[in-house]
């Protein structure tokens, strides 16, 4: 959570920059912040226990961005629960549980948006989620470490030892731990706000010129931190006023009590406990692979057995397994191997985590026809089918139609069209031939109805021969070439199977039927066949506006 209002108070120490400033260097990453951001998009899946890998994809996109700018990241994950923070963690877990229960109730009532908001507010990153991310980091060759307790203290120790050049975080607690350079509010493109402790003397909101780390830490503890809530009415500026008039925290607490602040009993002891937690919290040294303290223990350090709140001393083998993410830092149970995704509740469990990783082998596969499958490679395996053999009953009878009409010189011509009049291949006019034996000839020029009579075939003939029989239909058409003809050609009577009718009367009757009116059209715009005697064509009427 950090110190409320500390970053705005020290705004002169911050400036906009880019992660590229640390090219060729190693920076430490407070990894839980990226995990929480990635989990926001799949909060409902995590709350309902559905398998999801969205938070892993978000995390890896940020990691690859750092590598793109030649920055070597060292990912630091939180470990077990710190005793000094136990009360704060219990309260947070209780609030998350209440929000999750309300979200489940709203989800059952189909109030998805309100439920999703509560799911986001009840998010909690679990050790199982950390293990899934670590497995992905191993595949791409990224370095990582799981702290015994808190990642903030681990990052502060790594910077003090020169392992990293800066720390990427959103938590202002790193200032209290004494970090020199902090990369704040970094986005997906690498733009960030750079905190530089060397610019502390330029702060104008409060006078901290010449202050060391101890006095700044005391000011932050009095204003309220994760290890101790503040006295009612005490913020950063009032805490600065008391620390400016004191030499240590104990003297500042006495001044607060003397000036009428409602200091609770035992507050002085709690302040000392918070200060020791910032100073001597247990962390992991990646060089010696042992558990050490943030600040080196010296003669002025109180006995370690009197400070159980800084973290329990663990066995060296357990510390190494926690750092390598081989065991759960909360339950100390060994992780199952071969984890690929996650399907687990958001609250951390104290039991074995193998049940969570058994469901990780399943992944969401896009179904064909869905929106996702249009951008993904099709994974549906098509089985070849053998084409069925055509039966005799399915054969189509081929019908050959011959159109007989007159050409421009009134000579008889026959056009043969096997398939389509408009889309078939263009054929040359052919002479009329008598129908072949065994085929039926129909003359459509007669008024009587034509019937197709299939010739009787011997029983010995195959069905294929019967189906491949060709029928020839001879029909007369009144088609004429689409050219302007002289008046003598217009007077020539054209034989047709349809009823003879004057072209002008025919057009007038048809257009009058559909409510058209006459309009003038030039004679050259139409053929004589469709031109009326007065050179007028018909044009549709306009509807009246109501």
Main traits of this protein?
546 residues; alpha/beta; 18 helices; 32% helix; globular; DNA binding; 5'-flap endonuclease activity
Describe this structure in words.
This protein is α/β, with parallel strands linked by helices. The protein folds into 3 domains: 6-207 and 276-361, Rossmann fold (3-Layer(aba) Sandwich); 395-449 and 461-498, no CATH class; 501-540, no CATH class. 32% of the residues lie in helices and 14% in strands. It is built from 18 helices and 15 strands. Strands 1-7-6-5-2-3-4 form a 7-stranded mixed sheet, with helices on both faces. Strands 11-10-13-12 form a 4-stranded mixed sheet, with no helix packed on it. A two-stranded antiparallel sheet has the order 8-9. Strand 10 and strand 11 form a beta hairpin. It starts with 5 loop residues before the first helix and ends in a 6-residue tail after the last strand. Its cofactor is Mg(2+).
